[in-house]
Amino acid sequence: MTEEKKADYAYQAKNAWTEMEVDEREEVFDFNKKYAEFISNNKTEREFASAAIRKLEAAGFKNIDQVEQLKAGDKIYSLNRSRALMAAVIGQDDLAAGLKLVGSHIDSPRLDLKPNPLYEAGEMAMFKTHYYGGIKKYQWVTMPLALHGVIIKEDGSKVEIKLGEEANDPVFFISDILPHLGKEQMKKSMSEGISGEQLNVVIGSIPVADSEVKEKIKTAILEYLKREYEITGEDFISAELQLVPAYKTRDAGFDRGLLAGYGHDDRVCSYTALEAILDIDNPKSTAVILLMDREEVGSMGNTGMQSHFFEDQVANLVDLYYADYSELLVRKVLQNSKVLSADVNAAYDPDFADVYAKHNSAYLGKGVVVSKYTGARGKSGSSEASAEFMGEVRGLFNRAGVVWQPAELGKVDAGGGGTIAQFLANYNMDVLDCGPAVLSMHSPYEVVSKADVYHSYLAYNVFLEK
Q1: Residue 131 bridge partners (DSSP)
Q2: Which end of the chain has less Cβ packing within 10 Å, N or C?
Q3: Could you give all domains of the chain from N- to C-terminal order, each with its CATH number?
């Protein structure tokens, strides 16, 4: 057997850039420019969901609550508490034949304000925070932070805040000890160098002029908040306020082939899934996307994948599609469905090569990643796709020209992680993890390849449509 013939039989992941023609490369850059603008402007679950609905409605999608009957070609969406949503295009096949579903999440690691956050210390006004999701706490100090979120007042009115993103906005930051005095800190492990209770945000320093006031700087901030937003200290108790990196998503590298930004995990999958369903008009199977909340903290809560939101919406579809509703029909729709769990994987990092399995790692620029399983140690805390479903998906991708690569998350016993795949698989669906590789995942500034972003879109689009 010749060496050339042996090479034909061997598997080797392709580099997506070398597979492109010039006009496709231009399309990749244009697609990523729009993606970068979208995630730069929508850094919270509420902002992402709201912007997604604007795009859906502009494309003819209707709120499911306003629909009385469903037929092939209809486009609907459902919003859950402003932080999670489902969108669907009804297919040609009978609904009971199952859905083609792409499920992702729109929450990212961040710092949440505590219910009673405001205090004064060291001639500064400060906010107390509680970190959300898996972060390296030392990465969040001495960087510009923006404040995003909503405050619900006791009369039910809503105040929206988005401060720190514009060039003329003030930013916020968390201090760190100078190296001249950091001897004891630097003796600690990296996980202990900055504690959760030290993630306190500097928000002001100018006191009120009233000599009778004890906490002059705190009072000055309260007066500012009352003047600018008509809120009081008690209003923080019914608020969802997040501190996120104030950076914009930007091109990275001389060749501009990478994107650096906050929240690629997992908004890169959510955005590409959204664009994929927006480009579908008449699918064979009913096409569905799920943009869920709270994945970074276990998918628990009424906006997470472990809630009944998805199941309730499938029941809603069945009720509007068939003349006679039955619970058995709901179960048939669920068990006949096929799912891509759209979440990111860890990109191989040569500076930390010891934790990656070289031949089973994801690489930037080699297309969308398919992961048969996630989990940790002995594959715990995850589902696993069947060989049949793996074969079906790779065949679909190959025929459509989607560049893809297989990978798992690091070496065995080096760590691990999970996605919403396990919760979808509990409905007896076929589920496969599928998303782009991310460098420096869960950091305030993550990196993805523009080629991988685009091929994620292609993968989701062909899966939903075909």
Answers
A1: 111
A2: N
A3: 3-108+262-465 (3.40.630.10), 110-245 (2.30.250.10)
Strands in 124-132's sheet, in edge-to-edge order, are: 158-163, 145-152, 239-245, 110-121, 124-132, 201-204
Distance between CA atoms of 297 and 337, rounded to whole angstroms?
26
CA neighbor of 367 nearest in space, from 3, 129, 15 = 15
**Quick one: tokens of 149?**
């979120």
Cα(223)–Cα(213) distance, rounded to whole angstroms? 13
Residue 262: phi and psi, rounded to 5, are -90, 135
DSSP of 432-448: EEEE-EEBTTTSSSEEE
The pLDDT tens digits along the chain (466 residues) read 565 555 567 889 999 999 999 999 999 999 999 999 999 999 999 999 999 999 999 999 999 999 999 999 999 999 999 999 999 999 999 999 999 999 999 999 999 999 999 999 999 999 999 999 999 999 999 999 999 999 999 999 999 999 999 999 999 999 999 999 999 999 999 999 999 999 999 999 999 999 899 999 999 999 999 999 999 999 999 999 999 999 999 999 999 999 999 999 999 999 999 999 999 999 999 999 999 999 999 999 999 999 999 999 999 999 999 999 999 999 999 999 999 999 999 999 999 999 999 999 999 999 999 999 988 888 888 899 999 999 999 999 999 999 999 999 989 988 888 899 999 999 999 999 999 999 999 999 999 999 999 999 999 999 999 8
DSSP-derived 3-state class of residue 85: strand
User: Count of CB atoms within 10 A of residue 76's CB?
Assistant: 23
Residue with tokens 């304000």: 113
Q: Are strands 286-292 and 375-376 parallel, antiparallel or unpaired?
A: unpaired
With CA atoms as reference, report the closest residue to 362 among 343, 348, 379: 348
